[in-house]
Amino acid sequence: MKKKIIALAVISLLGVQSAIVCAQDETLVDGVAAVVGKNIIKHSDIERPFAQMRLRSGMNDAFANRCSILENLILNQLLVHKGEVDSVEVTDDEVSRYAEMYLKNDLRKYGTREALREATGFTYDELKTQYERMLRSMILAQRVQYQLTEEVTVTPYEVGEFFRSLPADSLPEIPERYEFSVIEMAPVISQAERDRVRTELAELRERVIKGEKFSMLATLYSQDPGSAKKGGELGFFSRGEMVGEFESAAFALKPGEVSPIIETKFGFHILQLIERRGNTVNCRHILLIPKVSPDDMLAARMKLDSIAAEIRAGKISFEDAARQYSTAANARQGGSAVAPDGSARFDRATVDENYYAVGIPGLDEGQVTDATAMRTEDGHDAYRIVRLNKKYPAHKANLTDDYDAIYNAALADAKQRKLVQWAKRQMAITYVRLSDEYKDCVFPNLK
To answer: Under DSSP, is residue 328 helix (H, G, I), strand (E, B) or coil?
Structure first.
């Protein structure tokens, strides 16, 4: 959708993690590849992304591709240098918060600190330091880039000019897409079922208090599949990452202490604090989820089927039915589904990834499905009906059907061009030195 231009040089989140995970590779011989201002670019900063690119695409033009990577790294360091000269603020708090987020994800992936050390070559504390160093530069570069390009706009005429400048054979094939609406019905859980779960969880809590291992009971009984296999351990998290009731209970605990039973939208929990580290905590928890009775599920299904029949007969509009009956968050919007990118259009891959979209590609426009079983985002059993509002056939990108996507690409292109123009001016006034290995590199976007 866009011209062949250099990628924005700000390090991606995936790049931060990949660089660190690969850091134990002893085959990389490090050294200084370039100096920008007072900051250095190491050979390993080039070799790691080059190795990943070669693995994905089988590239063989080693020098040219290394030079391209170096060009992006220089642009990134020019942004960092400007941020340092202009004293753009990046607080220790925000750097630490991002680093802890990555560490939390790493611990979930590898399970234990020891496994994490074996995978990365760093201890937990060393890894945190590595993350903080890389993230500080990333955040600083992003902040400067935003300041440089925030006022860039494109007019409809410029969007058209951008589209017409694209070679016809480079226009992407837009896959079939769908707009649809959903009505969900989650039956109310009976008080008797809620009481049953509370009693069961209270018994587990009492067993922990009497000396049984929380982690063993979590593995055996917790209904949180992500943490149960790890003995209920969630990894470190900071305030704002968990639902309010859970977070309040976690931060109120002392190490080893077990919480009272708490209720969240996911079900009922007990927690045990493992460790507090600065503004983060690591907890275990046991989750038990109340179940809807078969009779209540059947009643919900029959009710939704009758609503679908009324919609098909024209007795009520789908939108009014959604507002009146749906238990989903989008009920007020008449049930309109919103894609992950914020638009109303889903492609086939996105549809397949969403719990409410089974059967969407096979529907006709305006068709309303029968009630189908589903699980809500909170993990509860429910039913839903779906109406396909519009189907967009696969086609080559064009201004009429794909204006928003083309506008975004044109805006990104305009911001990129401004950034490149700025970088060329900065190259003339910033100390930049290349090692002998890269002195013959040609940087078309920086000269």
So the answer is: coil
Q: For 121-140, what is each residue's pLDDT tens digit?
A: 888 888 888 888 889 989 99
Query: pTM of the entire structure?
Result: 0.62
End-to-end CA distance of the chain: 25
* Region at 225 (left for phi over 0; alpha for psi -120 to 50; beta for the rest): alpha
What confidence category does residue 201 fall into, taking pLDDT thresholds of 50, 70 and 90? very high
Contact 446, 77 (CB under 8 A): no
CB burial string 249-269: b at 16+ within 10 A, e below: bbbebeeeebbebbebebbbb
What does the radius of gyration of the chain's CA atoms come to, in whole angstroms?
27
Q: Which residues of 10-34 are buried (b: 16+ CB within 10 A; e: fewer)?
A: bbeeeebbbbbbbbeeeebeeeebb
Q: Which residue has the tokens 């054979």?
A: 169
Dist CA 108 CA 232 (whole Å): 11
Dump the DSSP string for 385-432: EEEEEEEE--EE--TTT-HHHHHHHHHHHHHHHHHHHHHHHHHHHS-E
